[in-house]
Amino acid sequence: VGSFPGLTEDQEYCLNDQDGSLTLIFGPEARWVRNNFDAARMDVQIAPQAAYDRFVGEEKLFEDETANYALLERPLPLTERSLESLSREIELPACTIYVDDESWHYRSLSADQQKARILDEEGKEALVAELEEQIRKWSEIDPGQAMSASAFFNRFADRVGTYVSVQHGGYTYLYDGMQYQEIFANNVAEGYSFREGSDAAMTLTDLFADGTDPKALLKEALLIHASRAYPEAAEAAGQALGPYLDEILELPFTFCLRRDHVQLLWPCSLTPYAQDHFPGMDSIWQYTDLAGMAYYRDLGCDNLKIFQERSGK
Predict the structure, then answer these.
(1) What per-residue confidence (pLDDT) applies to 14?
(2) Higher per-residue confidence, 92 vs 235
(3) Share of the chain above pLDDT 90, in %
(4) What is the pTM of this model?
(5) By 3-state DSSP, what share of the chain in percent is helix, strand and coil, each rounded to 5?
(6) Gap between the Cα atoms of 50 and 168, Å rounded
(7) Side-by-side strand order, sheet with 254-257
(8) CA separation (Å) from 52 to 25, 126, 165?
(9) Residue 228 CA, distance from chain mean position
């Protein structure tokens, strides 16, 4: 065991896949390969996101050995009163609805970027009223049924590369308290991405390269994601998965740019569409969830303006 040689200009390092922490790699075989577990590693106990602007010169990253395209995560400064959480309970004869409304506030974002669009107070109350109606309906079907209900609303923002994304959503759930099975769910969300310094929300035209078919690329990426993240659900869906994606991609939707994927958001519940295409399927939520994430690596770097801008194409 020799003395510590110190850090060199070509010091090997990687970013931890789980939390983004900076890991230094040492040893003669230290040429960075993500799965090289023989090399000595040292996890640096700092929040690297806070230092990205100082030790990384590029705003966007290209493909690495595992074919991952990624944008750099950069923190957004919060206001002093950053989190406003309003919790309340609605007592009904059949059960209690637990309502939580959580919003984060960021001093660097404009008022137009931060404001909620679909989920104003009236929209939130409409979702809660729908949940109350479902409780009454199911309590009439089975008067002795034990139920658990909740409604959650949130708004938050994040920044990757030179883009800021703001998302707000409403999620309502009704469970069978004995079987712990979902009886009813309605999830709606809306989000927007902005170039820093602009109040104009990005569109698919801003995201995809000229001459591409954005919805065709999104469909293919969602099919790949489904086979990778929900293999059993994708196999059970079979040929019905393609027509389902065709239909929901014709609905109005918005998107947010994340570190390694585009998150698709619908201001309406996808549950009725999933139920139509996959009747009798268990865990219908899997078919709504799989429609939300299109990874950059599956969309292709050459098809995305956000990567072409970085390379000067």
Answers:
(1) 63
(2) 92
(3) 39
(4) 0.74
(5) 30, 30, 35
(6) 25
(7) 254-257, 261-265, 293-295
(8) 18, 42, 18
(9) 16
